[in-house]
Write a structure and sequence with these properties.
The complex is a heterodimer of chains A (about 550) and B (about 375).
Chain A: E1 21-25, H1 35-39, E2 45-55, E3 66-76, H2 89-93, E4 99-103, E5 121-124, E6 138-139, E7 161-164, H3 169-178, E8 185-188, E9 191-193, H4 203-220, E10 226-227, H5 235-238, E11 246-250, H6 257-263, E12 273-277, E13 289-290, H7 297-303, E14 311-312, H8 323-337, E15 344-349, H9 354-362, E16 370-373, E17 379-383, H10 384-389, H11 394-408, E18 416-419, H12 428-438, E19 442-445, H13 447-454, H14 481-484, H15 489-511, E20 528-530, H16 533-539, E21 542-543
Parallel strand pairs in A: 9-19, 10-11, 11-12, 12-15, 15-16, 16-18, 18-19, 20-21
Antiparallel strand pairs in A: 1-4, 2-3, 5-17, 6-20, 7-8, 13-14
Helix pairs in contact in A: 4-15, 9-11, 12-15, 13-15
Chain B: E1 4-13, H1 16-24, E2 33-43, E3 53-59, H2 62-75, E4 78-82, E5 99-106, H3 116-136, E6 141-148, E7 150-156, H4 159-165, E8 173-181, E9 198-200, E10 203-208, H5 214-223, H6 237-249, H7 255-261, H8 266-270, H9 275-284, E11 295-299, E12 305-309, E13 318-322, E14 325-329, H10 332-338, E15 354-358, E16 366-369
Antiparallel strand pairs in B: 1-8, 1-14, 2-7, 2-8, 3-5, 3-6, 4-5, 9-10, 10-11, 11-12, 12-15, 13-14, 15-16
Helix pairs in contact in B: 1-10, 2-3, 6-7
Classes of the chains: A alpha/beta (about 550), B alpha+beta (about 375).
Chain lengths: ~550, ~375
């Protein structure tokens, strides 16, 4: 037995087996090309010369002894900040399938990831794998006899939704007759690319998304819009005709708004909408966070800050005294800045208090919508604890708000948009349509579109999730040209288009059997069922088993 | 599936004519019930002035009839005429029909100072009070309508059989407009309120087909907080209430109904002379868009009759006739039964963009297309 003192062991010492991802290396396949070590974003891999004893089984004492073999093996760094993140870049570049990360469920690194007193931060979304509640909802009201089902392949479908304050019909007719102001309303595709900032995303990712969105609108006639997130918008976009596909976000750091305000006189068209961010699902009560790794020269210029500093936005908008006043004044100010021709709406994180925000908006004639982001929402950077444990699931939050509007007869006036985990397990259309039938006018998806359009590797088993430190192995969330050049914007655009085409087809496949084609089935809760009595009761949908 | 028949004529006729049309279409429905709406009434034994409100309903027990009388007395209604149906009880399936109500009342004297809108509101509130009273007493009182010149009958059974059971063939009641529908709501169990036609403030409609957008429409109408928007034992009742909303609340012309329930597409609105207004109307009335398959047949207080289709799936319905009398039915044999001596080449089956309007003078059909503009003068 070796005494413990002779082994370098500290409280924080970890072995590869204690890490969430363990590198599996097959020496017999390895060509020693070194690409894996070169590509690893966290430098966890080291090729090392190793020696092993080759015992001989001989009986004569004269020939006894051992011979040794030298070989090249993989050493996996066990430091917490250099642990394998499971991204699989090594496997991607290996010519011989000699290496891959393997998930290890006896992870002990989580007890040690507070080195230097720093609470763990990361990108991604809540590490809660498995089917989400939305995944478990099914569409049960099938038209067959008295109402024949529609043909998803041949019928025409109206699937767009409205973003903007919709007047009560009586008031609309009155204002039309007297020539008064009618609030702006946009007709958009109900699946929206959610707020991801120019700063969080790489320039290539942003360009690819915008190209894809423009193609959807101008060639396919699918009116997709995308939101910028905090941090402004490149000036060339602000002055381009593509601005009409963009929802500009203003958040508590007001980053990028100098550029936007200055660009107003030169704008060729109005933006799709203005989103005022009060909260987000991934980190409720926290402002945006762009870590110093990603504050490149370009981002610094766009945001009007020095390079290489952390950019934490405050948790609330500091300019005004109370939140009600802030909401009211900001909505009015932004409406006025765009000449009352652009819908302005707040985005909040899912919360027990969402209904009170909603009821404030109902009484504000300029409020155009409410966007609620649930606990499963993604982010580029947040504290682990915020992401995993803080927030409110979207389904019941949205449903409560919708039913509250119904009780007031105002469900058509303030459209509700929902986000947070839409497409978490790939079922984006099913998740989105479930939310729509629970009462959402549309859904935002961020993480899903990164996964679908750009091959984001992140998962809820904490795979990759290093968006915060600018080392994205796919070049999606990095400001380092060496990394983001890996991402071809044209290819991203192609995938954006393919994604929306598929969503559109799947929407028809959901709507046709329900006998719906003339309008988006918002609030058609009689079509929904779930095999969980408590959930059914809470959401006021049918229990099926 | 329901079968529908409507006849409108300048000369009052017996509703039994319309029941023969139902009989002609018998292969198309289950004959589980009858709903009738009569307008422009004439009684053999009473000279009706066309202005006094008529109460239609069923008192299922003696007690409920007493309560009905009490409610009407309390509000100041004076009974002018009580139509006694010659009921053959052996032909009525249900055993709890104490009295079929069809009574003409003199409206309360105290309403003399009220405006037309207020009187209409009070009439509706009285009907709702009767309905609520029945609901509070184990459904022993059913009130279908309380309105000048409108009578309604709803009963379970084979339509022609119900007509015979109530003695409708005797010609004691005649009307200028008669709507009939031949089915109880067998989807969800029998409830007399679930039987078409539906009625609110002089407006009546009946519908062929299922309403897949029922729940969102119902939620929206209920949320309006308007006292008359209730019931919804049938998914088709919302069609009546939408028509009421368009005409009475929005004060838009009948044509706008089509634009509300089946709005045009963007590319069609782009070339429509009223495209901007209609696009806005589509937005604000988005929750009232129907999804078919439906044919909606309706009548208005001025005896205008109309027929519209959903935008895509289209339930069968056609219109035919001649100056002075017109018929709308689910099948051609139904129209034949009601008006055999017409020029059949002029029969018309509306398509998705059409609203067929038979104006009160009944001289010619107006086939209005949604692609054409309409006058907005009512709203101005």
């Amino acid at each position: 037995m070796v005494s413990i003192q002779s082994i370098p062991s500290e409280p924080g010492s970890l072995t590869p087996n204690d890490l969430p991802w363990v590198i599996e290396h097959r020496e017999e396949r390895c060509t020693l090309c070194g690409r894996c070590a070169a590509v690893c974003p966290v430098n966890t891999l080291k090729l090392a010369y190793m020696r092993k004893r080759m015992p001989k089984l001989v009986l004569s004492s004269a020939e006894r002894g051992s011979s040794y073999k030298t070989f090249v093996g993989i050493r996996q760094n066990t430091e917490v900040n250099k642990r394998c993140i499971g991204c699989g870049s090594c496997a991607m570049v290996c010519p011989n399938e000699a290496i891959r990360p393997v998930f290890n469920d006896s992870d002990r690194h989580r007890f040690q990831n507070t080195k230097g007193g720093e609470a763990p931060k990361r990108g991604g979304r809540r590490n809660d794998p498995g089917p989400s509640l939305l995944d478990r909802i099914s569409f049960n009201r099938i038209s067959m006899l008295t109402d024949p089902a529609l043909d998803a392949g041949r019928h025409e479908f109206t699937m767009n939704t409205l973003l903007g304050r919709v007047l009560p019909p009586e008031e609309y007719v009155r204002r039309q007759m007297s020539g008064e102001w009618i609030p702006p309303v946009r007709e958009i595709f109900p699946f929206i690319i959610g707020s991801m900032s120019f700063g969080a995303l790489s320039p290539n990712m942003w360009l690819g998304l915008l190209q894809g969105v423009a193609y959807c609108n101008e060639v396919l006639g699918i009116p997709v819009v995308m939101a910028t997130g905090e941090g402004g918008c490149p000036p060339w976009v602000l002055k381009s005709p593509f601005l009409k596909y963009i929802i500009l976000q203003i958040a508590s750091g007001y980053f990028g708004w100098d550029e936007i305000i200055r660009a107003i006189p030169e704008m060729q068209c109005d933006p799709a909408a203005i989103e005022i961010k009060y909260g987000q699902g991934a980190k409720p009560g926290d402002g945006g966070l762009l870590m110093w790794f990603k504050v490149s020269k370009l981002i610094a210029r766009l945001r009007g800050v020095p390079e290489g500093v952390d950019l934490p936005s405050p948790p609330v908008h500091q300019t005004l005294y109370s939140i009600e006043e802030s909401v009211m004044k900001m909505i009015q100010t932004m409406s006025m800045a765009f000449n009352f021709k652009v819908p302005v709406y707040p985005k909040i994180s899912g919360s027990n208090s969402a209904k009170s925000v909603l009821n404030n908006l109902v009484r504000n004639p300029y409020a155009s919508a409410l966007m609620i982001d649930g606990i499963d929402g993604g982010t580029g950077a947040a504290y682990n604890i915020s992401m995993d444990a803080t927030g409110h699931p979207i389904a019941s939050n949205l449903r409560e708000c919708y039913l509250d509007l119904c009780a007031q007869g105002k469900q058509n006036e303030i459209p509700l948009f929902a986000a947070g985990g839409v497409g978490k397990n790939g079922n984006v259309t099913q998740n989105g349509m479930a939310l729509i039938m629970l009462g959402a006018s549309g859904v935002h998806m961020g993480k899903f579109i990164m996964q679908s359009a750009a091959g984001c590797l992140g998962s809820e088993r904490n795979r990759c999730n290093v968006c915060n430190i600018g080392l994205c192995p796919k070049g999606i969330t990095s400001q380092n040209p060496k990394l983001y050049r890996r991402l071809d914007p044209d290819k991203v655009a192609e995938r954006v288009v393919e994604t929306f085409m598929a969503i559109q087809t799947e929407m028809k496949k959901v709507m046709a059997p329900l006998g719906r084609s003339q309008s988006l089935p918002i609030g058609m809760s009689d079509a929904l069922g779930i095999s969980d009595k408590d959930v059914a009761e809470r959401l006021k949908i049918r229990y099926v088993c | 599936m329901c079968r529908l028949a409507l006849k409108t004529a300048s000369v009052p006729f017996s509703p039994f004519t319309v029941l023969t049309a139902m009989e002609a279409m018998q292969e198309g429905y289950d004959g589980s019930g009858l709903g009738l709406l009569l307008r422009g009434l004439e009684f053999e034994d009473y000279k009706y002035n066309g202005l006094d409100p008529i109460l239609s309903g069923i008192a299922h027990t003696e007690a409920s009839l007493f309560r009905l009388n009490a409610i009407m007395d309390e509000r100041g209604f004076v009974l002018n005429y009580d139509h006694e149906f010659e009921v053959d009880r052996s032909k009525v399936e249900a055993q709890d029909r104490y009295k079929y109500i069809l009574r003409v009342y003199k409206q309360p004297v105290s309403w003399g100072t009220l405006s037309k809108d207020q009187v209409e509101h009070e009439l509706m509130m009285t009907r709702l009070a009767l309905r609520a009273d029945g609901e509070a007493h184990n459904e022993d009182l059913t009130a279908f309508s309380l309105w000048p010149n409108v009578a309604m009958i709803k009963e379970v059974g084979w339509p022609l059989g119900v007509g015979e059971a109530l003695g409708l063939e005797s010609g004691r009641i005649k009307a200028r407009v008669c709507m009939a529908q031949g089915r109880q709501n067998t989807n969800w169990g029998i409830n007399l309120y679930a039987c078409h036609p539906f009625f609110i403030q002089g407006i009546g409609t009946m519908t062929n087909g299922e309403n897949t957008a029922f729940i969102p429409i119902k939620d929206w109408l209920t949320g309006k907080g308007y006292p008359g928007y209730l019931g919804y034992q049938s998914d088709s009742e919302v069609f009546t209430h939408i028509l009421h909303f368009v005409i009475k609340q929005l004060k838009l012309p009948l044509q706008a109904y089509k634009h509300v329930i089946t709005p045009l597409k963007n590319e069609e609105l782009a070339v429509h002379p009223q495209g901007d207004f209609l696009r806005g109307l589509r937005n604000v009335c988005r929750r009232l868009i129907i999804d078919g398959p439906n044919a909606v047949i309706g009548t208005l207080p001025d005896e205008t009759c109309m027929l519209v289709m959903d935008a895509k799936k289209l339930r069968p319905a056609m219109v035919g006739g001649k100056p002075g009398e017109w018929a709308i039915a689910s099948e051609m044999c139904g129209v034949d039964a009601m008006i055999p001596d017409r020029d059949r080449s002029k029969d018309f089956q509306p398509m998705r963009e059409h609203t067929v309007i038979i104006p009160p003078d009944r001289q010619e059909l107006e086939i209005w297309s949604q692609f054409n503009p309409f006058l907005l003068n009512q709203a101005a």
